[in-house]
Amino acid sequence: MKRIYVVLTILLFSALLPFTSVYAKDIDNNNISISIQSPTGVKNYPGIEKTIKAEIKNNTNKPIKDILVYITMTDIKKSMTVNLEDYSADKPITVNLLNPNETKTVELPIRFVYTSNYYLYTTVVSKQYKQIVSSDSIKIEIMGNTKVDKSMVMIVSFVEPLLLIFGTVFIIIRNKI
Q1: Distance, CA of 98 to CA of 60 (rounded, Å)
Q2: Residues 114, 86: contact at Cβ < 8 Å?
Q3: 75-82: Cβ within 8 A, 24+ apart
Q4: Greatest CA separation found in the chain?
Q5: For 79-125, what is each residue's pLDDT tens digit?
Q6: DSSP state of 47
Q7: Which residues neighbour 116 within 8 Å (Cβ) at sequence distance 6 or greater?
């Protein structure tokens, strides 16, 4: 009796096995590929402007027309994508024609404005093919300026109200005279 259960379990398992398999996409069958050439990462303060150099390659033996290359960014701390309009990086670069096996380098400007940790990708798409291909990511760390001199903060918080009071009193006295 136990053998029947074992045999039935094996048959059931082998029958369901094809439905549970996940097949990975073959990376080498992309018609176009993209990779970030520079920088390899960014660690700086808000306001830094960088140019992302990405290399796109036509992997086919036919020319590819109307190619768009753009930046995609993910905020790691917030687990969400980033609105690139704030970073002046929302406009894609257009490549009109990429000949067979040709490689072109495009430059994508970006200005990092908010403090956080990001992954930055470059993405390429063509009107000819339905594939969207992204590069490997680079790590971006935009640090906050946390160096604050306590004594300067105390001086400013004490002197500023005094200057406002004395300035107001001076103006009132001057207007009465």
Answers
A1: 10
A2: yes
A3: 75/116, 75/117, 75/118, 76/116, 76/117, 76/118, 76/119, 77/116, 77/117, 78/116, 82/118
A4: 114
A5: 998 888 878 887 889 999 999 999 999 999 999 888 899 999 999 99
A6: T
A7: 75, 76, 77, 78, 142
Of 75, 70, 56, which Cα lies nearest the Cα of 113? 75
DSSP class of 100: T
- pLDDT exceeding 90 applies to what percent of the chain? 40
In the chain, the amino acid numbered 31 is N
Torsion angle of C-alpha atoms 7, 13, 15, 18, degrees rounded to 10: -150
Residue with tokens 């140019």: 51
Q: What does pTM read for this prediction? A: 0.65
SS3 72: strand
